[in-house]
What we know:
Blueprint: H1 9-28, H2 33-52
Helix pairs in contact: 1-2
Amino acid sequence: xxxxxxxxxxxxxxxxxxxxxxxxxxxxxxxxxxxxxxxxxxxxxxxxxxxxxx
Length: 54
């Protein structure tokens, strides 16, 4: 049984853009190692959520 995405196109795009922004801030804007790790992980999760649509 295939799963049906419950997010529309605009919401999915918003998740992907927010994930890219968070990951970019983690790469270029943070100084501490723990903040870099958390931002990159959170950004990756948001990108995957946007691509999957759940």
